[in-house]
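We include this case.
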Amino acid sequence: MTEKIIEVMKKAGYELYYVGGCVRDEILKIPCGDIDFATNARPEKLMKIADDNGIKAKQVGRQFPVVLFHVDGVDYEIATYRKDGDYSNHRHPDTFEFADTIYEDLERRDFRMNALARCAYTKQLVDPFRGFADMANCVISTVGNPKARFDEDYLRILRFFRFVAKFDFKPDEAALAEISSNPGRVKEIVSERVYAELVKMFKTREPSIAFRLMHRTGVLKEILPEVDALYVVGQHHVKHFDDALTHTLNVLDYTAYLGGDYITQFAALFHDIGKLETAERVGSDKIGYHGHAQRGADLAIEIMTRLKFSNADKDDVSFLVHNHMSLHHFDDGSERNISKYLRRIVAKKGKEQAYRLLTLSFADRLDCFMGEMDLDRIQILDAVVARLELNPAKLNINGFDIMKILGIKGEKVGAVKDMLEDLVLEEKIPNDEEYLKFLLTYSAELVKKLAGVVTSK
């Protein structure tokens, strides 16, 4: 699809290179995301080339002009070679100037494996900073001095961890030492960017790689101190080798293996953060964490507010954290009881949340309990997923019906509705409109009593 761009740029007499991630991914033989180009043509020349050849184009970017060529339904970025000035805000350069060569353009890039270019005409690889050697040696290192590169843009610190996890490469020790020397720099990254990088880390095959490195360098303590502090919390038994942070990161990996989305993975990351405040010795050789799920949900809301999560995501994640122990309590092995519970979750929170809770529960059990009995429980949950139709019928009367028949309003209506839904899900009463209205009409006082509704006369 890029042949048209190559053709018109070559005809116009300008240089054109594939740059960055698309060159890296081609060498690594992995699927390529966006295809980006760099050229010595200035933006105004690019716009004219597009116009002369019937290509839709527009100039974008407030700080650095980039031209988008729209070809075969896809937008391709073509950036003019540039050199960056000083980074006073540690995110974007204050100034830039156009450069004359591809080498100057590559010099400003973050990591060696990203400082690659391939000539669009000859296919020759341009690798002035030995990025190919880094990939051959499976290592991530910066272009030039690590301190200078990270001080230019503090977000590169989080990107460094993400790339290590994404490619499962070794981190350059000099880069790690530089990050460790001043981890507090990451606190100056705006919350939205921290959130975005965490979500990208979750998309790696083994997210714990990034989080373990962040803990090792002190970065995790700066951005997620509630999670980092779990390394001092014992796991179940005083003599247990693992700590709660190790367990948390194992659960995070299992959640990724099981296909959990970013909501489920944030819940995995936060599910035990209440343990530090609730830990207490139980007997001579055990530690208990009574109430840690509720406290963890409260702390999770504080973290998510800090990181500017949407209200919907905060509700979903905190619900999972609060309820992450719920499926562990079905120790009688009854699929019927588990099914009833999950139907309630679906009725109140939706099918997606029920599957998220199952995924989180699986992941937690896989790390916590590997005895025969616990494997049986995992298999029971798996059977429920396979057989259970998580599609309960909606209650066939609404809140207005309840309010009208019982003469109540507000929270009392919700309490009655919840009770009726539970009875329907447990198959104790039929979900029939006429029956439900009959029940409310002729057993009004009993219904209100069972639902805990007290009305003033």
The chain has a mean pLDDT of 88. The chain has three domains: 3-137, 257-392, 399-450. The two ends are 76 Å apart (CA to CA).
